[in-house]
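Thread amino acids onto this structure.
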């Protein structure tokens, strides 16, 4: 048995693709792996939007890095990010804009359909941007799943991981708050600029029906007054990244295991 172990390890290694990035894979290798050896694709999507002292593309940087970190354990591939989304009340900030809901809806519909037709039957949307985008993603997911009989999970990582935020930082977060800024800091500290930070760049999210402002008066939007101001702690940032990857990986794995157990939408190749 002991002698067989190195052989077994070698065989398993030989089954790994040269890349899990669908930007980088070659079509022949794709055909060898999908769907015979992998049925799962992670689809990151975000938008271009001001993010306090982090990069305007934070909502793309975060889900893309998260998907790449999750992919090996899920035996999944990572699709190219859909980087233009439905930026809302922050679209007046420099270097920031959104595309229309109609355009976003069409793009995400065609992207989900395209990957389903290429053999994936577990389509996992790793969303990086909130606002109206989350509702559109859920709506499109329901329609495409029903029509093509594929399984689609839409995840909003910062909401899924609100308990990780509380555990690591001891307080709630915010849009471009401590949690999201830390997540970017863990991916690439050069994308975060503490020297530009002022507490006045943060505003607590208004209670429903109290007030609204366009543009929103600050690019950092705290989920709760007095909590979530960025503090730029590298150790906490790395712990948060790890915690988010773990929680999200478990969510995706658990969902796929339950779809499998219920034998939902048995495999068929769509072309
Ligand atoms: Zn964001």
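Threaded sequence (271 positions):
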């Amino acid at each position: 048995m002991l002698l067989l172990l190195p052989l077994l390890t070698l065989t398993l290694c030989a089954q790994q693709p040269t890349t899990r990035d669908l930007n980088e894979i070659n079509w022949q290798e794709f055909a060898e792996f999908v769907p015979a050896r992998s049925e799962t694709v992670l689809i990151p999507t975000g938008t271009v939007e001001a993010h306090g002292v982090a990069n305007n593309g934070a909502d793309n940087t975060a889900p893309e890095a998260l998907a790449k970190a999750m992919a090996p354990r899920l035996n999944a591939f990572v699709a190219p990010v859909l980087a233009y989304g439905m930026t809302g009340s922050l679209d007046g900030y420099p270097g920031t804009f959104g595309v229309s809901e109609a355009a976003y809806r069409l793009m995400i519909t065609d992207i989900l359909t395209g990957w389903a037709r290429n053999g994936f039957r577990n389509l996992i949307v790793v969303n990086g941007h909130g606002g109206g985008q989350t509702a559109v993603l859920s709506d499109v997911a329901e329609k495409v799943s029903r029509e093509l009989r594929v399984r689609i999970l839409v995840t909003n990582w910062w909401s899924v991981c609100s308990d990780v935020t509380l555990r690591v930082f001891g307080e709630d977060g915010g849009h471009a708050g401590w949690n999201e800024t830390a997540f970017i800091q863990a991916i690439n500290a050069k994308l975060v600029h503490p020297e530009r930070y002022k507490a006045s760049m943060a505003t607590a999210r208004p209670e429903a029906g109290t007030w609204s402002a366009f543009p929103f008066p600050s690019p950092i939007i705290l989920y709760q007054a007095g909590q979530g101001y960025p503090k730029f702690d590298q150790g906490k940032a790395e712990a948060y990244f790890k915690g988010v990857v773990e929680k999200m990986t478990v969510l995706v794995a658990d969902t796929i295991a339950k779809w499998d157990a219920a034998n939902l939408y048995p495999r068929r190749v769509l072309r």
